[in-house]
Design goal:
about 40% helix, 7 strands, two-stranded antiparallel ribbon, 6 helices, alpha/beta, FMN dependent NADH:quinone oxidoreductase, five-stranded parallel β-sheet, about 210 residues
Length: about 210
């Protein structure tokens, strides 16, 4: 049985978001095809994702210097323990599906905060004499990205930062089985918007069977 994290970073559900509609189609088909797997939905807009701030650095510093957890301030305890929960959950999963819109060439800020929470030395990567080494080599990722324009290829591809960043970070964690599924161009061709959405949903269902 595999543990799957379905991680969404969109304030809207599938009724208002093309990306979320495609993501739901994927995860519904995945659960049908893999009934014994455990799927956990992490809606980042409904989760407490601490920013890495002074409290976090101070809390980590106290722990690294040998102080007990009870010597942290209440704010340090809350933030440090929550970040530990998030990173542990991430490490224990086998597969990850990220669903994000492309906003200003990147994903929403809450996704960056989440990725910061799981980018932890000793958990997802480690430093060695040969340089950083990823520790999650047996995992796999699918990134579903929605954008009104076309950024997966063509003249705007070099401006796209979200999918490229996520792929780079996952490789840093040791995850090289990384797939992308794009639903894009519906603002450029609004008369084809429903066709673009339907095509992406069909591709998502097909991908779910073999993921």
């Amino acid at each position: 049985m595999a543990k799957v994290l379905y991680i969404t970073a969109n304030p809207f559900d599938e009724s208002r978001s093309y990306g979320m509609a495609v993501g739901k189609a994927f995860i519904d088909q995945y659960e049908v095809s893999n009934p014994n797997d455990e799927v956990i939905h992490i809606n980042l807009y409904n989760e407490y994702i601490p920013s890495i701030d002074a409290d976090v650095f101070q809390g980590w510093g106290k722990l690294q210097s040998g102080s007990g957890f009870d010597q942290l301030s209440d704010e340090e305890k809350t933030k440090v323990s929550r970040l530990a929960e998030l990173s542990e959950q991430f490490v224990k999963a086998d597969k990850y599906i990220f669903v994000t819109p492309l906003w200003n060439l990147l994903f929403p800020p809450v996704m960056k905060a989440y990725l910061d929470s799981v980018a932890v030395a000793g958990k997802t990567f480690e430093y060695t004499a040969q340089g950083p080494k990823g520790l999650l080599t047996d995992k796999k990722v699918l990134h579903i990205q929605a954008s009104g324009g076309i950024y997966s290829h063509g003249p705007a591809a070099d401006k796209e930062m979200a999918h490229r960043y996520l792929k780079t970070l996952m490789a840093f964690f040791g995850i090289n089985d990384f797939q992308g599924l794009f639903v894009e161009g519906h603002d450029l061709a609004p008369e084809r918007a429903e066709e673009i959405k339907a095509n992406a949903i069909a591709r998502a269902k097909d991908a779910a069977i073999t993921f």
